[in-house]
Amino acid sequence: MTVIAFVGAGSVEFTRGLLTDLSTWDHEMAMTWRLHDIDPERLAVAEGVARRLVAERGLRAVVEVHPERDSALAGAEAVVVTVMIGGLSATRADLEIPLTHGLRQTIGDTLGVGGIFRGLRSAGFYSGLAEDCLRLCPEAWILNYTNPMAINIGFLHAIAPELRVLGLCHSVHWTMQTLSELIDVPLADTSFTAAGVNHQAWVLDWRRDGQDLYPILDARIDADPELRRRVRIDMYRRLGRFPTESSEHSAEYVPWYLHHDEEVSRFRLRPAEYVGISEDNVAEYQRTAAAVRDGTPIAFETDAVEYAPQVIHALGTGAAHDVYATVPNRGLVDNLPNEAAVEVPVRVDADGSHPRSVGLLPPACAALNRRFLDVVENTVAAAVCGDPRLVRRAALLDPNTAATLPPDRIDEVLTELSRAHRDTLPPALASHDYTTRDTHPRS
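-> structure tokens emitted (443 positions)
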């Protein structure tokens, strides 16, 4: 019996997709699905969805509900993490407070001041989770979906390097699906390698039957001026490798787009877009909750493309799966910092995970990744040490923030965000006034 703990199961739509994918292998492996969330209402909805799935498909999976995290984790072999610390109100603050200062972000969950504070307010959760896993399921695989991925994986590695952790994201898969559709080639007929950092990895090689598919993509782009109005198409044409995250995400990781009105218009960017996306997610949850309550149909579409179910299938059956995951850089990407959180190809099987070395990234791609990782490194250190000076330095190094605001204005944004998130930040960082000067700047 493979025991899987879902921490943050109240992220119901995500949980539904993961469970639906897992149901594909129900005949091959006996599973116990332990659902845990701190929100009783959301936990009840997640339970309703899981039990409906089991009943409709005649699954043998056992569904358990655990309001307390300890009982969910005890003896688990996999821990799937899909939490959101602070909820919709925190997302609003991350995007809307900087916007009042002229600092545009689109998503704000990975880099930028939004990503920095999202990572900082998650630190307490991950500290507790790491302690509990070491105590209750030290051999379990922690499969993290929560953003900011590089910051969260870097933090876990810093505080509990002995834990088995994979950061999982579907951006590589869906990027390759999109590219294949653009050139009208079935994804299953292609082979590819991508690497970099999560949300800013690069498609290094892409082929069908040995043929390089990039020239076909080039012709497709040349023939369609509307395609050239996408940020990541523009980045690809300038850098020579396609980035693995959406244009909305990609725009806020570099200094080239959001600071300029004409670029915002040309690339059809929508500052603070993620507030609306988050509101839509809440509405979808409410529709699912109503379906559970009223007994009306719930859609269970099995794609079997999410990586966590594939990892769990490998653990439970010994079957090998090739996924993409965020792991510490130990000889995997030669021109990114050692031990940094990098996204690379990983084979998972009965013996665990086996990240694959990709060698050197193209110089310009590596340069952007290093700037990205500078922000990550300072944010992780700030979370570990509780040092607000490191928060300031992370923001100063962020490409979009630095391109938009002078240092003193950045300090004002940080001060407002630290007050807005005071209840979820590490105590040393809560309500900190960043407009004051460092007493010991060389520390």
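Residues 80 and 443 are 37 Å apart (CA to CA).
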